[in-house]
Automatic annotation (TrEMBL):
<keyword id="KW-0812">Transmembrane</keyword>
<feature type="transmembrane region" description="Helical">
    <location>
        <begin position="51"/>
        <end position="72"/>
    </location>
</feature>
<keyword id="KW-0175">Coiled coil</keyword>
<protein>
    <submittedName>
        <fullName>Uncharacterized protein</fullName>
    </submittedName>
</protein>
<feature type="coiled-coil region">
    <location>
        <begin position="93"/>
        <end position="120"/>
    </location>
</feature>
<feature type="transmembrane region" description="Helical">
    <location>
        <begin position="12"/>
        <end position="31"/>
    </location>
</feature>
<keyword id="KW-0472">Membrane</keyword>
<keyword id="KW-1133">Transmembrane helix</keyword>
Amino acid sequence: MAPEPEGRSWFVVAMCAAAVAVVIGLVAIIAQGTASETQLKLIDKLLDWPVLGFVTLMVIFCVLGRELVAFLTNANIKIAGLIEIEREVADVSSNVDENIAELQARIDALEAAAKAADLVVPKAEPPVPVSDDESEIYAALLRGLSNSNYTWRSLERIGYEVGITDEDEVARILRKHGTGEVRMGKGKSGKTIARVN
């Protein structure tokens, strides 16, 4: 923090000294018991909470004026920043509605184009088994499980690759021939998965 200007520090000292002098004077008058009825009423009014509150606030402002101004300025900047963020959110919200409408129009156009083209997707032919021999099928399943691109594979997929559409049949072959070599479990999707140990 930068040092206070010389004039301001003297002003603060003078204000504090004046406040202390007033309080000492009032206490002295009351302690002597020489105060007249008018002086006692005046002292009573000066010691009432509105006057003391005002004097206290003035002393605090004189002592902490720069800090108070900095705090209020910083709070104003934060509030202005929040207002700007609120405006940006409102702009994004209105843009989202426009973008959704544009995307819906594109989807409708694609659906219409697909209907107009009357595309027919041929059904895939069922896979042809690689062999009738279970040991050859097991070897093909093991090659599928050993694919370095995957840690776990679904039995459905590796069965399809070797020409077996029944997942239970794939599991039976792996259990029969892969004792200790293949580990099976359930995936997040609930499908049976396997990997090579």
